[in-house]
Amino acid sequence: MTVAPLPTLLLKTNDLRPQDFSTPRDRFDSAWENTLSTLLGLGRTAGADFVEFFLERNNYISCQAEDDEITSLSPRLVTGAGVRVFRDKADCYVSTNDLTFNGLRAALDKALAIMGLTLPGPNANLADINLELLRDYATTKGKDDWLAQCSSMKEMGEVLLAANSALDKEASHVQSRRAVYFRDWQEVLVAASDGTFARDIRLTQSVGYNLLCADGEHRSSIGQRAGDTSDPAFLRQWDYASAAASVAESAGKMLYADYVESGSYPIIMANKFGGVIFHEACGHLLETTQIERGTTPFIDKKGQKIAHENLTAWDEGLSPDAFGTIDMDDEGMPAQRTLLIENGILKNFISDRAGSMRTGHPRTGSGRRQGFTYAAASRMRNTYIAPGDYSVEELFASVEKGIYCKQMGGGSVGPTGQFNFSVSEAYLIENGQITKPLKGATLIGEATEIMDKISMCSNDLDLAAGFCGSISGSIYVTVGQPHLKVDSITVGGR
Amino acid sequence: MPSIQDIAAYAESSAKKLGISKYDVYGSSVDETSVQVDKGDPKQVKASNRSSVIVRVWNADGKVGVTSTSDVDPLGMDLALQTAQEASEFGVSDNIPDFSPESVAPTADVQVETVPPAPVGDLIATLVGVEKQLLEAHPAIASVPYNGLAQRAIDRFYLNSAGALRQEARSYASVYLYSKTEQEGRKPRSAGAMRVNRGLPLLDIEGCLKEATEKTISHLDYDKVASGKYRVVFSGEAFLSLLGAFSNMYNAQSVLDNRSLSTVDSLGTVVASPLLSVYDDALHPENVSAETFDGEGTPTRRVPIIEKGVLTQFLHSAGTAKRMGASPTGHASIGAKVSVGPSYYHVLPGDEASREFTLDQAENVILIDDVQALHAGVNALQGSFSLPFDGWLVNGGHRTSIESATVAGDFCDLLKAIIHVEPQAEITPGGICPRVWVDALSITGEG
Q1: Distance from CA of A276 to the nearest CA of B (A)
Q2: What is the DSSP string of B173-210?
Q3: Confidence category of residue A95, pLDDT binned at 50, 70, 90
Q4: pLDDT at B445 over 60
């Protein structure tokens, strides 16, 4: 019997030392192929079923103007990497700051050891990992110069001071005014033992106001933010004059507002940030992370009615400029558009690689993480309720006594599907008309019950930038919806 | 990973090269491992070894710039100092931060033993065993969807160009268990518990298991609660959550920023019932996370915040203390704008109570074990809160779990409506606090 010789591409582990694994410190590109494919080969040879490296460089800066002074300008520079090793359906994630070959190999060694595996010894033949031609979303989409095109420190200061000055002119009873901005530039490279090899640059920016007004015992605080993911000129194009007028108007109305009287009410949720109701009450419960844990009531409801027939909802990463938009997820999969609910019927879950492996639901380009210290998990991107057929006037006309939730605060959902979220700007509706401002409202309910009570959607879908904290850290997301009516919900207040 | 002495040498060399004569550096290096399990199998193991520093640079005009970085090698330090120098051009001109006058003062002599990390296999085996016990504790407990056993070793340091150099090492281990029930025709219920100590061998895992079990079972018998005003008893943990959420009341930076429930004139005024006293005590023996210096190198200490209802002191950084004619209290976090934050609360009775209150005899009282969604339901600038909670309606010692409800009110009013601070304190990761009784709070039940 003759044995075919091993392909020359296969390395022996004792050949690794003479290889040149020096890789560029200031750029993630195809120069990393040799380093990463070798490391992935080491992991596979050790017995791992799947290995993935995630490399990150981050150049972040935040700036804050208080009254008429820049009081904080904080740059942050981060580099790091994480390696994820799967053995059957169990996985391990190890992160490090050390991006040298030896640093990454040490992280891999640690991950393998945790999984009961060891790096191959001398003379072992190394599994050959053929990475695909680098899918470079950064270069092909012209993002390489984005950081250089962003506002300088000087411009940040000038814009925020001008914005704060505009706010001072618009608002009354001002106790403190803040204009805040951040720019988060992130370069990522993903390489995995299935051949995945992809690079991207993300540019996330946010700017907004935080206004505190006080008159004796009366106080109101209103925050407002805008966000963007792909426009280096975002800050210099910020329409702070209109934002100042809007924030000042809201703060003025809420300054003397009465506290909401607790009880059960029909409510109308405004469009844009009202979408947090769907994010909390349903979106999180459609992540495969929740299926894995058994913490979603929708676990076996695919194809079944879980919401009112007037409700259709999407999660996607494609909307231009939206805060949750990504060209690829943090596992290197291109983003896509995922229909979650169609006319009340549950169509799809939101899945990452591990979630797909463990639950059987297909990946949706939703593996996301805050940074290299987190393993990716199934997370939302731009999530919104589709527009309906009603007009806003029809929604109001249907309410005899209820609450108009114009601006939402944050919210959360628990392991049994109970959700809550706060309303930062609310008004009483009487006989279809807004009659007075209210404050201090928190909405609570059960996900399975609320979804069937969203009975009317208007035709004015709009999106808003938000932050979502969960198992893989804080990430940028979009929430959105048209104006909608919830037939009845519990409102906690005084 | 470079040693602190290496980092100090890199900083000195970079500063010299860049013509920087005044700087300081705060940093830490963390080595941590955590495990989760799912029905007897490891679900995910995470490990991390990373460092980061934050550098402040004063330029020739005396203005300060800041940069933080995870690259702590010579090249990384060069870039960080250079970026901070660039940022210093845009630093504030009024109330510029300076080195703490206490950055070279002696710190408390706290002997803290660090515990070596346990093998990952031991973490997994321990957690698998605990999960099994929790699942077997009651037929209704169907899963432990959130669980974790973690250990962490941290080295932190502060140094400055005036010769300050502080360093300390700590180790921690923590366990959390959050179980969920399933019963035919009943809504799922959940509850959890957490413990922290210096290392796995010292961790009170049995106590955590017992608490998670008892709480989960106690929520099986649930019912709606009618909306209205109730006498409310906050557990130590719940009260500490509120105290933390409204910490702007005694945070000097918030006061100076006009973003506080207090003003500079509030010291010495009555802000709470005389039954209440609150201290912040980073060095309390029960504080597993005791640190002897803050982000500016100032030694930490015990600070009285509220004594018998009177606001007695603010928490300070070096900068706020200078502006308010006080001493720094060891509560600063270094940054472009230095922030101030509490370390470890110690809540205790103030004046002696004139009446006895016991849950065994109380009627129609709500015991709140845990408040949730503080990020959403607290408006710290207005003083208002409206929060979902886990708790029970207590009648003559009998507890009925509350299905779903919120508690709402004004924090300043709440402090003054305290009618009893129990003598027996609970020890939690964030502080020590007894149960606190408050009159006439709004409770909204669902439905």
Answers
A1: 12
A2: EEEEEEEEE-BTTB---EEEEEEEESSGGG--HHHHHH
A3: very high
A4: yes
CB atoms within 10 A of CB A17: 7
CA distance B368 to B404: 12
CB B55 within 8 A of CB B66: yes
| pLDDT single digits (tens) B19-36 | 999 999 999 999 999 999
Q: Could you tell me which residue, A15 or A255, shows the higher pLDDT?
A: A255
d(CA B437, CA B428): 18
Is ipTM over 0.85?
Answer: yes
Binary contact (B388, A92; C-beta < 8 A): no
| pLDDT (average), residues B37-52 | 91
Q: Find all residues with CB under 8 Å of B248, minimum gap 6, and list them.
A: B254, B255, B259, B260, B261, B262, B380, B381
- Over the stretch B300-336, which tens digit does the pLDDT of each residue have? 999 999 999 999 999 999 999 999 999 999 999 999 9
Give the confidence band of A8 by pLDDT, cuts at 50, 70, 90. Answer: very low
Say yes or no for a CB contact (<8 Å) between B384 and A440: yes
How confident is the model over B438-443, as a mean pLDDT?
95
pLDDT at position B247 is 98
Euclidean distance between the first and the last CA atom of chain A, given in angstroms as a whole number? 87
Q: Which of A111-115, A399-403, A443-447, B345-349 has the lowest mean pLDDT?
A: A443-447
0.80 surpassed by pTM? yes
Strands B384-395 and B405-410: antiparallel
Residue located via tokens 């995910």: B44
Q: Cα torsion for B414, B419, B423, B425, to the nearest 10°?
A: -20
Percent of chain A with pLDDT over 70: 97
pLDDT at A7 over 60: no
Q: Which residues of B381-391 are buried (b: 16+ CB within 10 A; e: fewer)?
A: bbbbbbbbbbb
Minimal CA separation from A414 to chain B, in Å: 9
Q: Using the beta-carbon criterion (under 8 Å), do A176 and B66 form an inter-chain contact? A: no
Give the list of residues 6+ apart from residue A107 with CB closer than 8 angstroms, or none.
Answer: A81, A82, A83, A94, A95, A96, A98, B49
Q: Chain B residues with CB inside 8 Å of A90's CB?
A: 41-44
Give the tens place of pLDDT for each residue, B211-243: 999 999 999 999 999 999 999 999 999 999 999
Residues of chain A with C-beta less than 8 angstroms from the C-beta of B143: 293-294
Residues of B in contact with A107 (CB under 8 A): 49
Chain A CB contacts of B92 below 8 Å: 69-71
Give chain B positions within 8 Å (CB) of A375: 44, 46
Across the A/B interface, how many CB contacts are shorter than 8 Å? 231
Q: Which residues lie below 8 Å from residue A199, measured CB to CB, with a gap of 6+? A: A28, A29, A134, A135, A136, A137, A138, A139, A187, A188, A189, A190
Distance CA B444, CA B440 (A): 13
Instruction: Please indicate whether, in this complex, the C-beta atoms of B47 and A94 are within 8 angstroms of each other.
Output: yes
Burial of B185 (0-12, 13-18, 19+ CB in 10 A): exposed
* Average pLDDT estimate for B281-309: 97
Sign (positive or negative) of CA dihedral A358, A364, A365, A368: negative
Amino acid at A104: L
- How far apart (Å, rounded) are the C-alpha atoms in residues A34 and A48? 19
Would you say A318 and A312 are in contact if contact means Cβ atoms under 8 Å apart?
no
Cβ B383–A417 below 8 Å, yes or no? no
Chain A, nearest residue to B39 by Cα: A293
Tell me the percentage of chain B whose pLDDT exceeds 70. 99
Alpha-helical (H) ranges within A171-264 are 240-255
Using the Cβ of A17 and the Cβ atoms of chain B, whether some distance falls under 8 Å is answered with no
Phi, psi (degrees; rounded to nearest 5) at B69: -150, 155
Cβ <8 Å between A114 and B90: no
Q: List chain B residues with CB under 8 Å of A420.
A: 372-373, 376-377, 388, 406
